[in-house]
């Protein structure tokens, strides 16, 4: 047995042994669907870098998917890619370096490690939590830059319902319905969301573009369907079980890049993702708790590449059909021991198997790639003074490549993460905190084995990425809001970069060195009939790779400002303004490979809502009210002004 496997088993053993001992302590409140991975709810794990979107804030933003709920969070930047995927970055880290969870299940596309959360239609979210920088050990592997956790509505004991419908002047239709209640010991929540949109309108002042004639954005329509079922059953007050089923069935058109010389003409006639999970909680005493989650996450899509903008023929060399049929199976066990009121240990024991299958037509056999990953770790919370708390943890992660079509799988990888956080809080409602952690990320199957239609050479010998993250911050809280400030610094090495190795041929290499630092400031307050939220993020992200052609990194704005202002002169009426500004970001022009500056831009949204009763309301929303023309990425123009009318009924 290798030394690395021995170390992993020892970490596993320590976590398991922790669940066998007992001392006196109280059990923290726990919602079954949240699972122990949400340890950030507990006092010592809370840091200023955790931001939570609540149901009240989700309602004010009139969101239609999970991405729209996060677009005003400090340090997050969303952009629309040439693949028509809404991806994000956290403090300069790319989305593939961030973990995304849905009700405790780690979700991603197994091949490239990224998932477009805008495809999750609906607004039935209990909360969405973002942990930046040094994430908890309990979130497992591959979270260099943080974690996003989406938690759908929890079942209620009393029967309730919620219905919302919304339409726009240009033909967009959104409908969402939720039913929740209980039958004896069984609680349930059922929801359905439908989102349909034709090609959106560009701003009236749109410039002349190579592959876009203005008016309606070519090939930008979509159909999104989302269905959810969540149940919870109490076997015994100390033993609970729950299940969650999430089904997504979408059709997505991909607008061509408006400025590229050789744009793509793509459509996704099929984009499906289903998540099924079973979670349990067992309270053996006031000291010993074991929670678990078992899951199946499937992903299937069909991508059609066409000859031209008629989207009718596939005869040219670059035209193709690509079919993905992926799945992930796994389980996570979370033992917890409350040794005393001042000492709590939490562990993680997890395994998941990622399988990627692809082919070029329905009759061809699948090319199959798969990996297995195991994580074990432990985190200890120490309250060593009435004003001081600390948290430290360590985990071991083991990646076993299992299958790689026509390529020898690489050797297994083993890595260790650790973190330390300390927090001081005074009786005067202010607190300070500091965190330091070493984080790592395994290479994805795409980075290891991708051939990209003959344009890439596989590199199964890639190493893992590693980052050293540091942050310090303070917060002052009062009865109507808070003020906070955070300084952060991250140093990423062995960054995986796709580099040119021959004429028209690329390969992924561990060449990158990235140094990023910045400052976040946030103010939230209520005053009389006004409520406002303001945030500013400064980010300096530099490419320090030897032999680099530029110090820039793509799509990382140096300045980012968000402002939300709500005015409620009466409980039956509310007005709101949403403002965002992004400046000083760069991209590499795909036609000439030169680094160029992207446009600075701002977006202003407005809304007003009239509540006729506690159960019925109507709202009017204006997105991009000033009809601003801008790109969030090179050649991807964003929608112009849109007016929407919505109705809410609940009871």
Summarize this structure as a short list of keywords or feature phrases.
22-stranded antiparallel beta barrel; single chain; 5% helix; five-stranded mixed β-sheet; Maltoporin, Chain A; 651 residues; mainly beta
Overview of the molecule:
The chain has 651 residues and is mainly beta. It has a single domain (3-650), classed as Beta Barrel (Maltoporin, Chain A). Helices cover 5% and strands 57% of the residues. The chain has 4 helices and 33 strands. The strands form 5 sheets. The protein has a 22-stranded antiparallel barrel. Strands 1-6-7-4-5 form a 5-stranded mixed sheet. A hairpin with a 2-residue loop joins strand 9 (173-183) and strand 10. It is globular, with a radius of gyration of 24 Å.
| Terminal CA distance | 60 Å
Q: Could you name the CATH class?
A: Mainly Beta
- Helical content band: under 10%
- Structural class, from secondary structure content? mainly beta
Instruction: Classify the beta-strand content into a percent band.
Output: over 45%
What is the CATH superfamily label?
TonB-dependent receptor, beta-barrel domain
Low-confidence stretches: 4-48
Mean pLDDT: 89
- Tally of DSSP β-strands: 33
């Amino acid at each position: 047995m290798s030394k690395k496997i021995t170390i992993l088993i020892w970490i596993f053993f320590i976590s398991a042994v922790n669940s066998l001992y007992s001392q006196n302590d109280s059990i923290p409140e726990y919602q079954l669907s949240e699972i122990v991975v949400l340890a950030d709810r507990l006092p010592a794990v809370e840091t200023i870098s955790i931001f939570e979107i609540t149901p009240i804030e989700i309602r004010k933003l009139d969101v239609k998917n999970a991405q729209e709920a996060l677009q005003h969070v400090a340090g997050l930047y969303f952009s629309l890619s040439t693949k028509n995927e809404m991806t994000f970055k956290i403090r300069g880290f790319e989305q593939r370096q961030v973990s995304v969870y849905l009700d405790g299940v780690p979700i991603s596309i197994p091949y490239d490690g990224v998932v477009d959360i805008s495809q999750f239609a609906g607004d039935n979210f209990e909360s969405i939590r973002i942990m930046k920088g040094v994430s908890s050990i309990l979130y497992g592997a591959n979270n260099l830059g943080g974690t996003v956790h989406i938690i759908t509505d929890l079942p209620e004991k009393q029967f309730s319902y919620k219905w919302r419908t919304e339409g726009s002047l240009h033909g967009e239709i959104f409908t969402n319905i939720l039913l929740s209640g209980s039958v004896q010991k069984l609680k349930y929540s059922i929801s359905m969301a439908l989102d349909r949109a034709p090609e959106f309108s560009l701003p009236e002042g749109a410039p002349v573009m190579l592959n876009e004639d203005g008016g309606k954005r070519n090939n930008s329509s979509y159909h999104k369907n989302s269905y959810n079922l969540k149940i919870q059953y109490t076997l015994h007050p100390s033993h609970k079980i729950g299940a969650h089923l999430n089904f997504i069935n979408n059709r997505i058109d991909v607008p061509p890049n408006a400025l590229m010389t050789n744009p793509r003409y793509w459509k996704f006639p099929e984009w499906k993702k289903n998540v099924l999970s079973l979670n349990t909680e067992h309270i053996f005493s006031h000291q010993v708790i074991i929670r678990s989650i078992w899951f199946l996450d499937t992903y299937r899509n069909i991508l059609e590449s066409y000859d031209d903008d008629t989207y009718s023929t596939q005869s040219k060399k670059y035209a193709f059909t690509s079919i993905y049929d992926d799945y992930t199976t796994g389980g996570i066990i979370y033992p917890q021991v409350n040794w005393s009121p001042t000492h709590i240990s939490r562990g993680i024991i997890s395994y998941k198997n990622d399988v990627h299958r692809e082919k070029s037509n329905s009759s061809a056999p699948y090319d199959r790639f798969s990996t297995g990953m195991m994580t074990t770790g432990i985190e200890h919370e120490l309250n060593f003074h009435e004003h001081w708390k600390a948290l430290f943890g360590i985990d071991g992660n083991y990646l076993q490549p299992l299958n790689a079509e026509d390529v020898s799988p690489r050797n297994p990888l083993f890595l260790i993460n650790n973190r330390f956080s300390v927090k001081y809080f005074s009786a005067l409602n202010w607190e300070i905190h500091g965190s330091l952690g070493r984080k790592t990320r395994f290479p994805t199957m795409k980075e290891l084995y991708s051939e990209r239609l003959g344009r890439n050479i596989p590199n199964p010998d890639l190493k893992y990425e590693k980052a050293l993250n540091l942050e310090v911050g303070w917060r002052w809280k009062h009865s109507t809001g808070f003020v906070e400030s955070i300084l952060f610094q991250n140093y990423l090495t062995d960054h995986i970069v796709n580099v040119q190795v021959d004429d028209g041929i690329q390969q992924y290499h561990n060449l990158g060195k990235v140094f990023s630092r910045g400052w976040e400031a946030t103010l939230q307050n209520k005053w009389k009939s006004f409520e406002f939220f303001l945030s500013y993020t400064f980010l300096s992200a530099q490419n320090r790779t030897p032999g680099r052609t530029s110090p820039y990194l793509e799509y990382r704005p140096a300045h980012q400002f968000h402002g939300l202002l709500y005015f409620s002169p009466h409980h039956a009426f509310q007005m709101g303004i949403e403002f965002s500004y992004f400046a000083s970001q760069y991209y590499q022009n795909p036609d000439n490979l030169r680094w160029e500056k992207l446009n600075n831009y701002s977006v202003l949204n407005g809304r007003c809502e009239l509540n006729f009763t506690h159960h019925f309301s109507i709202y009017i929303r204006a997105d991009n009210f000033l009809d601003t023309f801008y790109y969030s990425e090179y050649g991807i123009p964003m929608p112009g002004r849109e007016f929407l009318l919505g109705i809410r009924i609940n009871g």
